[in-house]
Amino acid sequence: MQPLPPEEARRDGAEDAQWSRPECQAWTGTLLLGTGLLYCARVSVPVCAVSMSQDFGWNKKEAGVVLSSFFWGYCLTQVVGGHLGDRIGGEKVILLSASAWGFITAATPLLARLSSAHLVLMTFSRILTGLLQGVYFPALTSLLSQKVRESERAFTYSAVGAGSQFGTLVTGAVGSLLLDRYGWPSVFYLSGGLTLLWVCYVHRYLLSEKDLILALGVLVRGLRVSRRTKVPWRQLFRKPSVWAAISAQLSSACALFILLSWLPTFFKETFPSSKGWVFNVVPWLVAIPAGLFSGFLSDHLINQGYRTITVRKFMQVMGLGLSSVFALCLGHTSSFCKSVVFASASIGLQTFNHSGISVNIQDLAPSCAGFLFGVANTAGALAGVVGVCLGGYLIETTGSWTSMFSLVAAISSLGLCIFLLFGEAQRVDLSPTHEDL
Protein backbone atom coordinates (compact mmCIF):
# COMPACT_ATOMS: atom_id res chain seq x y z
CA MET A 1 0.00 0.00 0.00
CA GLN A 2 1.46 3.34 -1.08
CA PRO A 3 1.88 6.01 1.64
CA LEU A 4 -0.06 9.20 1.19
CA PRO A 5 1.81 12.26 -0.09
CA PRO A 6 2.72 14.66 2.73
CA GLU A 7 0.11 17.28 1.75
CA GLU A 8 -2.72 14.73 1.63
CA ALA A 9 -1.56 13.17 4.89
CA ARG A 10 -1.71 16.57 6.57
CA ARG A 11 -5.23 17.14 5.26
CA ASP A 12 -6.41 13.76 6.51
CA GLY A 13 -4.86 14.45 9.91
CA ALA A 14 -6.52 17.84 10.02
CA GLU A 15 -9.92 16.31 9.24
CA ASP A 16 -9.47 13.75 12.03
CA ALA A 17 -8.62 16.57 14.46
CA GLN A 18 -11.76 18.57 13.68
CA TRP A 19 -14.33 19.04 16.41
CA SER A 20 -17.42 16.87 16.56
CA ARG A 21 -20.70 18.77 16.51
CA PRO A 22 -21.13 18.75 20.34
CA GLU A 23 -17.52 19.88 20.77
CA CYS A 24 -17.98 22.60 18.19
CA GLN A 25 -21.10 23.87 19.94
CA ALA A 26 -19.38 23.90 23.36
CA TRP A 27 -16.31 25.70 22.04
CA THR A 28 -18.36 28.15 19.97
CA GLY A 29 -20.33 29.24 23.03
CA THR A 30 -17.19 29.46 25.15
CA LEU A 31 -15.24 31.43 22.57
CA LEU A 32 -18.19 33.75 21.96
CA LEU A 33 -18.11 34.58 25.67
CA GLY A 34 -14.33 34.94 25.56
CA THR A 35 -14.53 37.37 22.65
CA GLY A 36 -17.18 39.30 24.54
CA LEU A 37 -14.94 39.61 27.59
CA LEU A 38 -12.02 40.66 25.41
CA TYR A 39 -14.11 43.56 24.12
CA CYS A 40 -15.37 44.37 27.62
CA ALA A 41 -11.77 45.04 28.55
CA ARG A 42 -10.96 46.74 25.25
CA VAL A 43 -13.79 49.30 25.27
CA SER A 44 -13.60 50.11 28.98
CA VAL A 45 -11.43 53.15 28.26
CA PRO A 46 -13.60 54.53 25.39
CA VAL A 47 -16.72 54.19 27.57
CA CYS A 48 -14.96 55.90 30.50
CA ALA A 49 -12.93 58.39 28.44
CA VAL A 50 -15.04 61.46 29.27
CA SER A 51 -15.07 60.76 33.03
CA MET A 52 -11.36 59.92 33.07
CA SER A 53 -10.55 63.10 31.12
CA GLN A 54 -12.44 65.14 33.69
CA ASP A 55 -10.67 63.41 36.60
CA PHE A 56 -7.19 63.70 35.12
CA GLY A 57 -7.55 66.94 33.13
CA TRP A 58 -6.91 65.46 29.68
CA ASN A 59 -7.68 67.39 26.49
CA LYS A 60 -8.76 65.70 23.23
CA LYS A 61 -5.20 65.09 22.03
CA GLU A 62 -4.16 63.53 25.35
CA ALA A 63 -7.31 61.41 25.41
CA GLY A 64 -6.47 60.36 21.84
CA VAL A 65 -3.03 59.21 22.99
CA VAL A 66 -4.57 56.99 25.69
CA LEU A 67 -7.26 55.67 23.33
CA SER A 68 -4.74 54.85 20.60
CA SER A 69 -2.06 53.43 22.90
CA PHE A 70 -3.92 50.12 23.08
CA PHE A 71 -3.11 49.59 19.41
CA TRP A 72 0.58 50.34 19.93
CA GLY A 73 0.83 47.08 21.87
CA TYR A 74 -1.88 45.30 19.88
CA CYS A 75 0.07 45.47 16.62
CA LEU A 76 3.23 43.89 18.06
CA THR A 77 1.91 40.42 19.00
CA GLN A 78 -0.40 39.59 16.09
CA VAL A 79 2.07 37.52 14.07
CA VAL A 80 3.45 35.82 17.18
CA GLY A 81 -0.06 34.87 18.29
CA GLY A 82 -0.99 33.48 14.90
CA HIS A 83 2.24 31.52 14.54
CA LEU A 84 1.96 29.99 18.00
CA GLY A 85 -1.71 29.19 17.35
CA ASP A 86 -0.74 27.34 14.16
CA ARG A 87 1.90 25.32 16.03
CA ILE A 88 0.57 24.59 19.54
CA GLY A 89 -3.17 25.25 19.30
CA GLY A 90 -5.01 28.53 19.40
CA GLU A 91 -7.07 27.61 22.48
CA LYS A 92 -3.94 27.44 24.65
CA VAL A 93 -2.64 30.78 23.41
CA ILE A 94 -6.04 32.37 24.06
CA LEU A 95 -6.32 31.07 27.62
CA LEU A 96 -2.82 32.10 28.67
CA SER A 97 -3.22 35.61 27.29
CA ALA A 98 -6.73 36.03 28.77
CA SER A 99 -5.48 35.27 32.27
CA ALA A 100 -2.91 38.08 31.91
CA TRP A 101 -5.14 40.74 30.33
CA GLY A 102 -7.91 40.02 32.85
CA PHE A 103 -5.51 40.72 35.71
CA ILE A 104 -4.15 43.90 34.09
CA THR A 105 -7.67 45.23 33.42
CA ALA A 106 -8.81 44.64 37.00
CA ALA A 107 -5.64 46.33 38.31
CA THR A 108 -5.83 49.39 35.99
CA PRO A 109 -7.61 51.74 38.47
CA LEU A 110 -5.03 50.89 41.13
CA LEU A 111 -2.22 51.51 38.64
CA ALA A 112 -3.68 54.92 37.74
CA ARG A 113 -3.51 56.01 41.39
CA LEU A 114 0.17 55.11 41.91
CA SER A 115 1.38 58.62 41.06
CA SER A 116 0.32 61.93 39.53
CA ALA A 117 1.61 60.85 36.08
CA HIS A 118 -1.84 59.59 35.11
CA LEU A 119 -1.32 59.94 31.36
CA VAL A 120 1.90 57.89 31.41
CA LEU A 121 0.48 55.17 33.66
CA MET A 122 -2.76 54.78 31.70
CA THR A 123 -0.87 54.76 28.41
CA PHE A 124 1.43 52.02 29.78
CA SER A 125 -1.57 50.01 31.01
CA ARG A 126 -3.27 50.18 27.61
CA ILE A 127 -0.10 49.24 25.72
CA LEU A 128 0.29 46.19 27.95
CA THR A 129 -3.37 45.23 27.46
CA GLY A 130 -2.92 45.59 23.70
CA LEU A 131 0.15 43.33 23.76
CA LEU A 132 -1.79 40.62 25.56
CA GLN A 133 -4.96 40.89 23.46
CA GLY A 134 -3.06 41.05 20.18
CA VAL A 135 -2.65 37.27 20.08
CA TYR A 136 -6.38 36.55 20.43
CA PHE A 137 -7.86 36.86 16.94
CA PRO A 138 -4.89 35.35 15.05
CA ALA A 139 -4.95 32.39 17.46
CA LEU A 140 -8.74 32.18 17.07
CA THR A 141 -8.44 32.18 13.27
CA SER A 142 -5.84 29.41 13.46
CA LEU A 143 -8.02 27.38 15.84
CA LEU A 144 -11.18 27.60 13.72
CA SER A 145 -9.35 26.91 10.45
CA GLN A 146 -8.03 23.66 11.94
CA LYS A 147 -11.04 22.51 13.96
CA VAL A 148 -14.16 23.61 12.03
CA ARG A 149 -15.48 22.13 8.77
CA GLU A 150 -15.14 24.45 5.79
CA SER A 151 -18.90 24.39 5.10
CA GLU A 152 -19.61 25.68 8.65
CA ARG A 153 -16.70 28.07 9.03
CA ALA A 154 -18.42 31.35 8.17
CA PHE A 155 -21.28 30.86 10.64
CA THR A 156 -18.94 29.65 13.40
CA TYR A 157 -16.59 32.60 12.91
CA SER A 158 -19.52 35.02 12.79
CA ALA A 159 -21.04 33.51 15.94
CA VAL A 160 -17.75 33.80 17.83
CA GLY A 161 -17.17 37.25 16.34
CA ALA A 162 -20.58 38.34 17.64
CA GLY A 163 -18.91 38.28 21.03
CA SER A 164 -17.25 41.55 20.13
CA GLN A 165 -20.63 43.25 19.86
CA PHE A 166 -21.90 41.38 22.91
CA GLY A 167 -18.95 42.57 24.99
CA THR A 168 -19.30 46.12 23.78
CA LEU A 169 -23.02 45.92 24.52
CA VAL A 170 -22.48 44.69 28.08
CA THR A 171 -19.86 47.33 28.77
CA GLY A 172 -22.04 50.01 27.22
CA ALA A 173 -25.13 49.03 29.20
CA VAL A 174 -23.79 47.85 32.54
CA GLY A 175 -20.71 50.06 32.29
CA SER A 176 -22.82 53.20 31.82
CA LEU A 177 -24.82 52.38 34.95
CA LEU A 178 -21.69 51.62 36.96
CA LEU A 179 -20.08 54.78 35.63
CA ASP A 180 -22.94 56.94 36.86
CA ARG A 181 -23.27 55.27 40.27
CA TYR A 182 -19.79 54.10 41.29
CA GLY A 183 -17.34 55.88 38.99
CA TRP A 184 -15.08 54.70 36.18
CA PRO A 185 -12.90 52.28 38.23
CA SER A 186 -15.89 49.95 38.71
CA VAL A 187 -16.05 49.31 34.94
CA PHE A 188 -12.48 47.97 34.96
CA TYR A 189 -13.07 45.85 38.05
CA LEU A 190 -16.10 44.21 36.41
CA SER A 191 -14.54 43.43 33.03
CA GLY A 192 -11.27 42.20 34.52
CA GLY A 193 -12.97 40.06 37.17
CA LEU A 194 -15.32 38.40 34.67
CA THR A 195 -12.38 37.55 32.41
CA LEU A 196 -10.58 35.79 35.26
CA LEU A 197 -13.72 33.77 36.03
CA TRP A 198 -13.92 32.73 32.35
CA VAL A 199 -10.28 31.61 32.46
CA CYS A 200 -11.05 29.43 35.49
CA TYR A 201 -14.01 27.83 33.69
CA VAL A 202 -12.03 27.00 30.52
CA HIS A 203 -9.13 25.64 32.55
CA ARG A 204 -11.41 23.40 34.58
CA TYR A 205 -13.75 22.04 31.90
CA LEU A 206 -12.13 22.37 28.45
CA LEU A 207 -8.35 22.29 28.80
CA SER A 208 -6.17 20.04 30.90
CA GLU A 209 -3.35 21.32 33.09
CA LYS A 210 -0.90 19.21 31.07
CA ASP A 211 -1.86 21.07 27.87
CA LEU A 212 -1.20 24.42 29.51
CA ILE A 213 2.16 23.36 30.91
CA LEU A 214 3.22 22.18 27.45
CA ALA A 215 2.02 25.49 25.96
CA LEU A 216 3.99 27.48 28.53
CA GLY A 217 7.07 25.44 27.66
CA VAL A 218 6.64 26.30 23.99
CA LEU A 219 6.25 29.99 24.83
CA VAL A 220 9.50 29.93 26.79
CA ARG A 221 11.23 28.33 23.79
CA GLY A 222 9.40 30.51 21.26
CA LEU A 223 12.43 31.52 19.21
CA ARG A 224 13.56 27.93 18.79
CA VAL A 225 10.06 26.92 17.64
CA SER A 226 10.11 29.67 15.04
CA ARG A 227 13.35 28.37 13.57
CA ARG A 228 12.14 24.79 13.31
CA THR A 229 8.75 25.59 11.77
CA LYS A 230 9.29 27.72 8.74
CA VAL A 231 6.35 29.76 7.47
CA PRO A 232 6.14 29.78 3.64
CA TRP A 233 6.00 33.58 3.54
CA ARG A 234 7.53 33.87 0.07
CA GLN A 235 4.74 31.87 -1.55
CA LEU A 236 2.14 33.77 0.46
CA PHE A 237 3.30 37.27 -0.31
CA ARG A 238 3.81 36.70 -4.02
CA LYS A 239 0.04 36.39 -4.51
CA PRO A 240 -2.12 39.46 -5.26
CA SER A 241 -5.03 37.72 -3.50
CA VAL A 242 -3.03 37.68 -0.26
CA TRP A 243 -2.28 41.39 -0.51
CA ALA A 244 -5.94 42.04 -1.30
CA ALA A 245 -6.93 40.16 1.86
CA ILE A 246 -4.41 42.12 3.93
CA SER A 247 -5.66 45.43 2.52
CA ALA A 248 -9.29 44.61 3.24
CA GLN A 249 -8.49 43.43 6.78
CA LEU A 250 -6.43 46.58 7.36
CA SER A 251 -9.31 48.78 6.25
CA SER A 252 -12.01 46.96 8.22
CA ALA A 253 -9.92 46.84 11.41
CA CYS A 254 -8.85 50.48 11.20
CA ALA A 255 -12.39 51.74 10.53
CA LEU A 256 -13.80 49.70 13.41
CA PHE A 257 -11.07 50.83 15.81
CA ILE A 258 -11.74 54.50 15.04
CA LEU A 259 -15.49 54.09 15.61
CA LEU A 260 -14.97 52.06 18.79
CA SER A 261 -12.68 54.72 20.20
CA TRP A 262 -14.63 57.87 19.34
CA LEU A 263 -18.35 57.02 19.09
CA PRO A 264 -19.02 57.27 22.87
CA THR A 265 -17.37 60.71 22.97
CA PHE A 266 -19.25 61.80 19.83
CA PHE A 267 -22.64 61.05 21.38
CA LYS A 268 -21.69 62.44 24.77
CA GLU A 269 -20.59 65.79 23.34
CA THR A 270 -23.07 66.15 20.49
CA PHE A 271 -26.10 65.11 22.57
CA PRO A 272 -25.12 65.89 26.19
CA SER A 273 -28.63 65.35 27.56
CA SER A 274 -28.98 61.87 26.05
CA LYS A 275 -28.80 58.71 28.12
CA GLY A 276 -25.46 56.92 27.82
CA TRP A 277 -27.00 53.46 27.83
CA VAL A 278 -28.93 54.24 24.61
CA PHE A 279 -25.98 55.02 22.34
CA ASN A 280 -23.70 52.55 24.12
CA VAL A 281 -26.21 49.69 23.75
CA VAL A 282 -28.44 50.01 20.67
CA PRO A 283 -25.75 49.79 17.92
CA TRP A 284 -24.26 46.66 19.46
CA LEU A 285 -27.68 45.15 20.11
CA VAL A 286 -28.31 45.44 16.36
CA ALA A 287 -24.87 44.09 15.49
CA ILE A 288 -25.30 40.71 17.21
CA PRO A 289 -28.15 39.37 15.02
CA ALA A 290 -26.58 41.07 12.00
CA GLY A 291 -23.36 39.11 12.52
CA LEU A 292 -25.18 35.80 12.99
CA PHE A 293 -27.30 36.47 9.90
CA SER A 294 -24.24 37.27 7.78
CA GLY A 295 -22.60 33.96 8.75
CA PHE A 296 -25.75 31.97 8.01
CA LEU A 297 -26.25 33.77 4.70
CA SER A 298 -22.64 33.24 3.61
CA ASP A 299 -22.67 29.48 4.28
CA HIS A 300 -26.14 29.15 2.72
CA LEU A 301 -25.12 30.90 -0.52
CA ILE A 302 -21.99 28.76 -0.86
CA ASN A 303 -23.97 25.56 -0.21
CA GLN A 304 -26.44 26.70 -2.89
CA GLY A 305 -23.63 26.71 -5.45
CA TYR A 306 -22.49 30.34 -5.57
CA ARG A 307 -18.76 30.82 -6.05
CA THR A 308 -16.95 31.29 -2.76
CA ILE A 309 -15.16 34.46 -3.85
CA THR A 310 -18.44 35.97 -5.10
CA VAL A 311 -19.96 35.47 -1.66
CA ARG A 312 -16.87 36.85 0.10
CA LYS A 313 -16.90 39.98 -2.08
CA PHE A 314 -20.61 40.50 -1.53
CA MET A 315 -20.03 40.37 2.22
CA GLN A 316 -17.30 42.98 1.90
CA VAL A 317 -19.52 45.28 -0.15
CA MET A 318 -21.87 45.24 2.83
CA GLY A 319 -19.18 45.28 5.51
CA LEU A 320 -16.94 47.98 4.04
CA GLY A 321 -19.07 49.73 1.41
CA LEU A 322 -22.57 50.18 2.78
CA SER A 323 -21.36 50.55 6.37
CA SER A 324 -19.16 53.51 5.36
CA VAL A 325 -22.18 55.24 3.78
CA PHE A 326 -23.98 55.17 7.12
CA ALA A 327 -20.81 56.36 8.89
CA LEU A 328 -20.76 59.39 6.58
CA CYS A 329 -24.40 60.08 7.44
CA LEU A 330 -23.44 60.38 11.12
CA GLY A 331 -21.50 63.54 10.36
CA HIS A 332 -24.43 65.19 8.60
CA THR A 333 -27.30 64.97 11.07
CA SER A 334 -28.23 66.84 14.23
CA SER A 335 -30.95 64.39 15.26
CA PHE A 336 -30.19 62.03 18.12
CA CYS A 337 -32.59 59.36 16.83
CA LYS A 338 -31.12 59.45 13.32
CA SER A 339 -27.59 59.32 14.74
CA VAL A 340 -28.43 56.18 16.72
CA VAL A 341 -29.98 54.60 13.59
CA PHE A 342 -26.97 55.47 11.42
CA ALA A 343 -24.48 54.26 14.04
CA SER A 344 -26.44 51.02 14.46
CA ALA A 345 -26.53 50.43 10.71
CA SER A 346 -22.81 51.14 10.29
CA ILE A 347 -21.72 48.93 13.19
CA GLY A 348 -24.21 46.19 12.27
CA LEU A 349 -23.05 46.02 8.65
CA GLN A 350 -19.41 45.86 9.70
CA THR A 351 -20.13 42.41 11.16
CA PHE A 352 -20.42 41.16 7.57
CA ASN A 353 -16.60 41.38 7.48
CA HIS A 354 -16.50 38.23 9.64
CA SER A 355 -18.12 36.29 6.78
CA GLY A 356 -16.01 38.03 4.17
CA ILE A 357 -12.37 38.83 4.68
CA SER A 358 -11.92 36.99 8.00
CA VAL A 359 -12.98 33.68 6.42
CA ASN A 360 -11.25 34.50 3.12
CA ILE A 361 -7.90 34.37 4.93
CA GLN A 362 -8.77 30.81 5.96
CA ASP A 363 -9.76 30.04 2.34
CA LEU A 364 -6.35 31.10 1.08
CA ALA A 365 -4.08 29.30 3.56
CA PRO A 366 -5.78 27.19 6.24
CA SER A 367 -2.51 25.61 7.41
CA CYS A 368 -1.03 28.99 8.35
CA ALA A 369 -4.19 31.07 8.67
CA GLY A 370 -3.17 32.32 12.12
CA PHE A 371 0.13 33.69 10.80
CA LEU A 372 -1.51 35.35 7.80
CA PHE A 373 -4.31 36.84 9.89
CA GLY A 374 -1.66 38.09 12.31
CA VAL A 375 0.13 39.92 9.50
CA ALA A 376 -3.15 41.42 8.24
CA ASN A 377 -4.32 42.45 11.69
CA THR A 378 -0.91 43.94 12.50
CA ALA A 379 -1.36 46.19 9.50
CA GLY A 380 -4.87 47.04 10.73
CA ALA A 381 -3.62 47.80 14.24
CA LEU A 382 -0.85 50.06 12.93
CA ALA A 383 -3.40 51.87 10.83
CA GLY A 384 -5.66 52.00 13.91
CA VAL A 385 -2.95 53.80 15.91
CA VAL A 386 -2.64 56.42 13.20
CA GLY A 387 -6.39 56.54 12.53
CA VAL A 388 -7.48 57.03 16.15
CA CYS A 389 -4.85 59.75 16.73
CA LEU A 390 -5.66 61.38 13.38
CA GLY A 391 -9.36 61.27 14.25
CA GLY A 392 -8.70 63.13 17.50
CA TYR A 393 -6.50 65.64 15.68
CA LEU A 394 -9.16 66.29 13.02
CA ILE A 395 -11.89 66.76 15.63
CA GLU A 396 -9.69 69.10 17.69
CA THR A 397 -8.49 71.23 14.76
CA THR A 398 -11.68 71.41 12.66
CA GLY A 399 -14.17 71.48 15.54
CA SER A 400 -16.35 69.11 13.51
CA TRP A 401 -17.04 65.38 13.76
CA THR A 402 -17.71 65.20 10.00
CA SER A 403 -13.99 65.01 9.23
CA MET A 404 -13.54 61.94 11.46
CA PHE A 405 -16.45 60.06 9.86
CA SER A 406 -15.14 61.01 6.39
CA LEU A 407 -11.82 59.44 7.36
CA VAL A 408 -13.61 56.18 8.26
CA ALA A 409 -15.43 56.16 4.90
CA ALA A 410 -12.26 56.84 2.90
CA ILE A 411 -10.32 54.03 4.59
CA SER A 412 -13.19 51.55 4.10
CA SER A 413 -13.68 52.46 0.43
CA LEU A 414 -10.00 52.02 -0.41
CA GLY A 415 -9.86 48.54 1.12
CA LEU A 416 -13.06 47.50 -0.63
CA CYS A 417 -11.82 48.57 -4.06
CA ILE A 418 -8.58 46.60 -3.69
CA PHE A 419 -10.41 43.47 -2.55
CA LEU A 420 -12.97 43.65 -5.36
CA LEU A 421 -10.18 43.92 -7.94
CA PHE A 422 -7.73 41.31 -6.65
CA GLY A 423 -9.53 39.12 -4.09
CA GLU A 424 -9.65 35.34 -4.67
CA ALA A 425 -10.72 32.30 -2.66
CA GLN A 426 -8.54 29.65 -4.32
CA ARG A 427 -6.08 28.02 -1.91
CA VAL A 428 -2.54 29.36 -2.28
CA ASP A 429 0.05 26.79 -3.39
CA LEU A 430 2.51 26.55 -0.48
CA SER A 431 4.79 23.89 -1.93
CA PRO A 432 8.46 24.95 -1.89
CA THR A 433 9.77 26.64 -5.02
CA HIS A 434 13.25 26.16 -6.48
CA GLU A 435 14.42 29.35 -4.73
CA ASP A 436 13.27 28.05 -1.34
CA LEU A 437 15.06 24.71 -1.58
UniProtKB/TrEMBL annotation:
Question: Which residues does the UniProt record annotate as the domain Major facilitator superfamily (MFS) profile?
Answer: 22-427
Organism field: Lynx pardinus (Iberian lynx)
The record's annotation in InterPro entries points to: MFS, MFS_dom, MFS_Na/Anion_cotransporter, MFS_trans_sf, SLC17A9-like, Sugar_transporter_CS
Q: Does the keyword Transmembrane helix apply?
A: yes
Q: Where is the signal peptide?
A: none
Q: Which Gene Ontology terms describe the biological processes this protein takes part in?
A: ATP export; purine-containing compound transmembrane transport
What's the protein called, per UniProt?
Voltage-gated purine nucleotide uniporter SLC17A9
- Hey, which family's this protein in? Belongs to the major facilitator superfamily. Sodium/anion cotransporter family.
- Please list the reactions this protein catalyses: ADP(in) = ADP(out); ATP(in) = ATP(out); GTP(in) = GTP(out)
List the membrane topology term(s): Multi-pass membrane protein
Q: Where in the cell is it found?
A: Cytoplasmic vesicle, Secretory vesicle, Chromaffin granule membrane; Lysosome membrane
TM region positions: 93-112, 119-137, 157-179, 186-206, 241-262, 282-302, 314-333, 371-395, 401-422
Instruction: Quote the function comment for this protein.
Output: Voltage-gated ATP nucleotide uniporter that can also transport the purine nucleotides ADP and GTP. Uses the membrane potential as the driving force to control ATP accumulation in lysosomes and secretory vesicles. By controlling ATP storage in lysosomes, regulates ATP-dependent proteins of these organelles. Also indirectly regulates the exocytosis of ATP through its import into lysosomes in astrocytes and secretory vesicles such as adrenal chromaffin granules, mucin granules and synaptic vesicles.
Q: What Pfam families does the annotation carry?
A: MFS_1
Q: What UniProt keywords are attached to this protein's entry?
A: Cytoplasmic vesicle, Lysosome, Membrane, Transmembrane, Transmembrane helix, Transport
Main location (coarse class): membrane
Going by the entry's taxonomy, the superkingdom of the source organism is recorded as Eukaryota
Recorded GO CC terms: chromaffin granule membrane; lysosomal membrane
